[in-house]
Amino acid sequence: MTVAFEGFTHLIPHAAAHETIRQGIGDLTLIRMTPDVIYDQMIGMGLVRKVVFSYAGNPGVGLLRRLRDAVENAWPRPLEIEEHSHAAMANAYEAGAAGLPMAVFRGYLGAGLKAVNPNIRSVTCPFTGEELAAVPAIRPDVSIIHAQKADKQGNVLIEGIVGVQKEAVLSARAAIVTVEEVVERLDAHPNACVLPHWTLDAIVEVPGGAHPSYAHGYYDRDNAAYLEWDQIAADRDAFKEWMQRHVLDADEAIFATRANRIVGAA
Amino acid sequence: MTGFSPDEMMTVAAARALSSRDVCFVGIGAPSAACNLARLTHAPDITLIYESGTIGTAPQVLPLSIGDGELCDTAVTTVPVPEMFRYWLQGGRITVGFLGAAQLDRFGNINTTVVGDYNAPKVRLPGGGGAPEIASSSQQIFITMKQSKRSFVPKIDFFTSFGHGNGGSHRQDLGITTAGPSLLVTDMAVWRPDPVTKEFTVISLHPGVTLQDMADTVGWTIRYSDAMTETPAPTAEELEVLRALKARTQAAHNREVAS
């Protein structure tokens, strides 16, 4: 199964990823522009066969140590990678959302990735003759995002850094959204980023569900937790112990507790 | 004011290269400090753009990541990521793309992907993110990073972002119409590409830096400009603003938070 948990630093669906780990859903192909801590965790738990990505780092901190261990040492299992640039993945999501088979853009000029990724090809513009990069559209089986609000009908509002979440939802066969809260009415600005209820398959209210990432207007990014992850993920045993305590032996309620400790700082 | 670190000299020298007219696509790490120092000193009207979608941002503290809420809160507008890459970068609206590197060669080619062979890497690095297209679509590229033999290498292991290739007209030969790397600022020197060969050439050494220091930290035979000077030391104002920015940043990121 191919799954995209999207979020561009902001609104990363941590709670949904932890539930996936608790349910032991495995052999996943994970897609995401910026696989960070949650993909490090799923890879380290052995649930991932392949990852499609464009920047695999712990944002602002450094490398993803569990992903590195999988790529460099095949621990806990070998990891297949399909690597792109941000421009390629953003365009590929857009193509998926638009129902097109591929994305065309001016990219990868002189870059080495096209030599190691057979999904990076080129097309010639029929009007100008310019050679342009082409990548296949992204079409996940399931896309999962986190957002601020849903109304009673199930319409979802995303505010702040909106990343590629709308495209991730519209390109997927099924879409799940976790939200900070369900409200009577969205009262959204006319140009706001709203996903109508009929584009979604499930909405789950999980207050704090993005922690240690952040939800604009609700709580700040927990930068210290990202710095701390670098230490936890550096050691296989420390990693397993942390996952047992904070994920396998926990439930989604833990997120509200954590986020409450940084509420008000936003 | 006297006494400054090589890191401070690097940030100050890089900041000086920017002006209020620039529309700058800011990369993670050292570039972010330089761009914000420029904004807080001589280039108050510079437009800073981060790939998370924030346009015209003016953060009071340096973001830990390219998607911090502070960037959105202080931006003129925040756009979706696909729009950022399609309209703003690919559309040719960026005057300076400001990048760092894990490995760099004398022609400004950048590697942030792997050390060693791609399929069996010694070290798997984060990868390119926005950099492959920032390098080809921005009107010019500035690079800032610390010198070391590990990072200033004769031959990079992977072409994450294309600089001047093998030099000369290699860029144009590939159909790239933008200028490419036009400035390199390190903790020891300021470099510019030779107009013909495109090899980075030292145009000024930072105060106190010796030719031996240079040879010890660069993995190729360095070219020096005939007109080489000494980089002017940071002014009292530059140091004061930079240190205040770093102190605010430190305080913000070390706040006690949940575990």
UniProtKB/TrEMBL annotation, chain B:
SMART domains: CoA_trans (SM00882). Transmembrane segments: none annotated. The keyword Nucleotide-binding does not apply. GO terms for molecular function: CoA-transferase activity. Pfam families: CoA_trans. Keywords: Transferase. It comes from the Bacteria. This is CoA-transferase subunit beta. It comes from Tabrizicola piscis.
